[in-house]
Specification:
Blueprint lengths: L8 H13 L2 H8 L3 H15 L4 E4 L2 E4 L1 H28 L7 E6 L3 H12 L5 E6 L2 H9 L5 E7 L10 E11 L1 E5 L20 E3 L6 H11 L6 E3 L3 H9 L4 E4 L9 E5 L6 E9 L5 H21 L1 H9 L43 E2 L15
Parallel strand pairs: 3-4, 3-5, 8-9, 8-10
Antiparallel strand pairs: 1-2, 5-12, 6-12, 6-13, 7-10, 7-11
Helix pairs in contact: 1-2, 1-4, 2-3, 5-9
């Protein structure tokens, strides 16, 4: 018999997460728990309340009438507690709410982005929260625990943005490359086809939202069913790749670690969208514009510094060949509707970045405005 519990805010957060994701498994990932642990916790919560809160079926977990009643009271409590904690953190920053709270998925862009932010705002208190899960970052934004976050969405697995969040696309279609041992039979190739890796095991991070599902889909489309190794620690994953025990997907801006090489995949079977997501009203439009430019410039510098990614982009005409970087081609911004006679644009300066407007999403997730900077 399960021991009953005295309800705490963390239990209410768990109920909200299950309702929002529609799945105990997805909620567990979002909360950083295992599915069995969250299932046990849910049973104890139901025992404390005295009734079933969710029905479980093939379509996921749905609140019962009692569950809806509990959630209607739990959400304001969770929101108030979140606001209390964030107000206290802002006060601890010593600037009465001027602490800039950034979030990001892990990757090479993080450090370059932070360097630009600190250079532009040398006296600003800034915090950074790194997550493997983009969905977890969205939840932190929605609950006022972050101001802005850099997230990624594997193609075919879009993120749901709650009302009150805005998206600006940084890279609409970023390819996924593969990291493999320097001594791998196909390491000398400039581009690797998935069937050439049919005998390899693949490393996946089970906490990385839909990355594993996207990889399985791509492998299945290629007629492959390799063994997947679930590894969360990046150092261990790098060692396994260097030893030739497995291969793994990586961002195209990633530098190869010792004993490994990074190669593009033929046909780009796996891609992702990188976006900067912010809470409406959390920061001024000017500050959001500046943060967008910071991350776009940082990404561009990394892209040009990666030999494999630079070659990939040159083949697609997305950047000029080496030696022409002093005046890169940048798409011209779309003029306002009342601008009837636009003057010819002046040549862009080095590393010019297109400032993307905010993209507001309706509660249904429909995009109302969309413009982006191509990779």
């Amino acid at each position: 018999m399960l021991r009953t519990v005295e309800l705490e805010v963390r239990h209410l957060r768990a109920l909200c997460a299950i309702a929002d994701t529609g799945s105990v498994r997805k909620a567990a990932l979002q909360l950083g728990m295992t599915q069995p642990s969250l299932t046990t916790q849910l049973r104890r919560i139901e025992g404390a309340i005295g009734g079933v809160l969710f029905t479980r079926g093939q379509t996921g977990s749905r609140p019962t009438p009692l569950g809806h009643s509990v959630l209607s009271r739990a959400r304001p409590i969770v929101a108030e507690m979140t606001a209390l904690v964030m107000a206290a953190r802002d006060a601890a920053c010593g600037m009465g709410g001027l602490c800039l709270r950034l979030g990001s998925v892990g990757g090479p862009t993080v450090a370059a982005w932070l360097r630009r932010v600190h250079r532009r705002l040398p006296g600003r208190d800034t915090t950074i929260h790194i997550e493997v899960s983009s969905a977890a970052l969205i939840q932190l934004l929605a609950t006022n625990q972050l101001d802005v976050a850099l997230v990624q969405e594997p193609a075919g697995f879009p993120l749901h943005l709650p009302p009150g969040l805005e998206r600006r696309v940084v890279v609409d279609c970023e390819p996924r490359f593969v990291a493999l041992a320097a001594g791998h039979p196909v390491a000398a190739l400039g581009c690797v086809a998935l069937p050439e890796l049919a005998d390899d095991s693949w490393i996946v991070d089970p906490t990385a939202d839909h990355d594993c599902a996207a990889l399985r889909r791509a492998l299945s489309t290629a007629g492959l069913n390799p063994r997947l190794l679930q590894v969360r620690d990046t150092a261990t994953a790098a060692d396994l790749v260097a030893s030739g025990e497995a291969v793994r997907l990586c961002q195209p801006t990633a530098e190869p670690t010792d004993g490994t090489v990074v190669r593009p995949l033929l046909g780009d079977p796996l891609t992702a969208r990188l976006s900067l997501v912010s809470r409406t009203g959390a920061l001024s439009i000017t500050e959001i514009d500046a943060l967008y430019e910071d991350v776009a410039y940082a990404y561009e510098e990394l892209a040009r510094g990666s030999a494999a990614y630079r070659a990939w982009r040159e083949r697609r005409g997305e950047i000029r060949p080496p030696g022409a970087y002093g005046a890169p081609h940048v798409p011209s911004p779309v003029p306002p509707a009342d601008h009837t006679s636009p003057a010819p644009p002046a040549p862009p300066p080095p590393h010019t970045v297109l400032r993307a407007p905010a993209v507001r999403l309706s509660p249904t997730g429909a995009t109302q405005e969309h413009r982006h900077l191509s990779a």
